[in-house]
Amino acid sequence: MRGSDLICRTRRQPGNPFMARETVYVVQTYVAGKGSQLKADVPISCKSAEDAVRKAERLGLTKLGAVVLSNSADVELGEYADEPDVLFRTGELPEQFRR
Questions:
Q1: Over the chain, what is the mean pLDDT?
Q2: For the chain, what is the domain count?
Q3: Among 10, 46, 71, 87, who pairs with 52 as Cys (CB 3.0-4.6 Å)?
Q4: For residue 93, how many other CB atoms are within 10 A of its CB?
Q5: pLDDT by residue (tens digit) across 48-61?
Q6: Is 16 exposed, middle or buried (0-12, 13-18, 19+ CB in 10 A)?
Q7: How many angstroms separate the CA atoms of 13 and 4, rounded?
Q8: Is 18 left (phi over 0), alpha (psi -120 to 50) or beta?
Q9: Residue 65 sits in which domain range?
Q10: How far is CA 58 from CA 2, 24, 35, 89, in A?
Q11: How far is Cα of residue 52 from the mean position of the Cα atoms in its chain?
Q12: Shortest CA distance to 40 belongs to which of 13, 67, 15, 58?
């Protein structure tokens, strides 16, 4: 998943000051690709879940589909949770993001 591999703007989670876990929010939009395939646009990093959902709602009006992903990460070490959480989805999306 392209969006889950990004180092983006993040918000530090409260808790242990020695753990550098942060939450990463990404909007991934899709346009028409070759044939009937979808092509991923460049992922957009966001400061918060609310900001990401607002952007995805707006972009979903002009794109074939949009999904908001959040992932827990230790950005300094480049370690990410196994699977990102899907916070919002709209339109046509790859199979992995369908309900």
A1: 83
A2: 1
A3: 46
A4: 19
A5: 999 999 999 999 99
A6: exposed
A7: 18
A8: alpha
A9: 3-97
A10: 21, 20, 26, 12
A11: 8
A12: 67
Given a contact cutoff of 8 angstroms between Cβ atoms, the answer to whether 91 and 30 are in contact is yes
- Residue 61 has which token pair? 């009006």
Grouping H, G, I as helix, E, B as strand and the rest as coil, residue 8 is coil
Looking at per-residue confidence, does 77 or 31 come out higher? 31
Is 26 in contact with 44 (CB distance < 8 Å)? Answer: yes
Neighbours of 57 (CB within 10 A): 14
Cβ atoms within 10 A of the Cβ of 74, count? 13
Other CB atoms within 10 Å distance of the CB of residue 62: 9
Q: Is the pLDDT of residue 9 over 50?
A: no
